[in-house]
Amino acid sequence: MSTQRLRNEDYHDYSSTDVSPEESPSEGLGNFSPGSYQRLGENSSTTWFQTLVHLLKGNIGTGLLGLPLAVKNAGLLLGPLSLLVIGIVAVHCMSILVKCAHHLCRRLNKPFLDYGDTVMHGLECSPSAWVRSHSHWGRHIVDFFLIVTQLGFCCVYFVFLADNFKQVIEAANGTTTNCHNNETVVLTPTMDSRLYMLAFLPFLVLLTFIRNLRVLSIFSLLANISMLVSLVTIYQFTIQRIPDPSHLPLVAPWKTYPLFFGTAIFAFEGIGMVLPLENKMKDSQKFPFILYLGMTIITALYISLGTLGYLQFGDSIKGSITLNLPNCWLYQSVKLLYSIGIFFTYALQFYVAAEIIIPVVTSRVPEHYQTMVDFSVRTALVCITCVLAILIPRLDLVISLVGSLSSSALALIIPPLLEVTTYYGEGLSPLIIIKDALISILGFVGFVVGTYQSLFELIQPSQVDISTNLTSAFI
């Protein structure tokens, strides 16, 4: 796939890794007549069930495995309730984005708008002349947060891979076939987890050199199978012999709640894939039902695993629940399986940021240097994610920081403001304005407080947090 082709695409939202440039909606513009409104998904082969599967797999990753620690940071009662509230608000913001995109498509006689273009054209409807004249910044802001979010996911994957492989290798000598007793074992010291990240670096660089999303979809299938098997096995363990929860606090200290917020919104940040999935549906009118059904399943999955994981492991829960699994071959295999899935998913998450950044860079160099520059930028971006992961080697804090810093903006702050600017000139109800203002304020407070608390923990970690999250600890 040439970068020249990418620069000429009318459709630039690659926030869903299931949408390939070769299947770009721009290819169907020839039959679009001005004055009509046609969802391009009507000509697509994506069924409602396929859309549901894409929605589910797009929201399930490392964020799910960090939710037991998030529940600990909120409390046994407050944690699940907060996950439910955040889930409801996140789904509502997704529906706002879809509604605004439809409205602007009708107004502008366009067949499809991605997230960035929806925000840009929404700002053009603002009553403020200054905002209208700077509406193009809407797309730049969305692209910026998409890049930060996706590269943040890649940083999380580096830490996750290093932590899990390090633990499996160090506990190999004590690994048994007895999965019923979670016994303490003497670990065989190996190299630092940051050296594991460096060991993965060349392999991930080579993986990101695959520029064809159709080829990456094969790795996506392998990742989905391995992660599904791992999740079933993790659930099977967490529901067995749950200890007495009476000693667990119903509400955790307020200082740790911002860390909960960052992790929770990190897990729920799937808004970037909503418009591409809706556009690819054969019967896009069913998409709202699919969205609510899929996100209901995802929310139930998040709440159940977060609660059960915290009930099972209590205060010893780590940044990923896989790090708490017993030292037997079955659960060691689960860690390896999930890690393999995350390894291949890295390329898919990286693809989003690469397709935003690389065309901008290669457009400024002669055509015969474009391939070399393309690979150089990919290598540099992977190295940046590795360096950031090395600088912040605590998985829980990386997840919380990425969630608070960028995911809250895409999932909570921008969509309500978009609804206000899009419909303000058409007699928007004061109640809707108040509702949207409250959601955006919630997202902004989480953005500020969550980012501050994550950075504070990185700079001045408490002894309790250090002992809880060290990957060399094994329960």
Automatic annotation (TrEMBL):
Its main location: membrane. It is a multi-pass membrane protein. The keyword Transmembrane applies. It comes from the Eukaryota. Keywords: Membrane, Transmembrane, Transmembrane helix. Residues 45-455 form the Amino acid transporter transmembrane domain. Residues 1-15 have a biased composition (Basic and acidic residues). This is Solute carrier family 36 (proton/amino acid symporter), member 1. Residues 1-35 are annotated as: Disordered. GO terms for molecular function: ABC-type taurine transporter transporter activity; glycine transmembrane transporter activity; L-alanine transmembrane transporter activity; L-proline transmembrane transporter activity; proline:proton symporter activity.
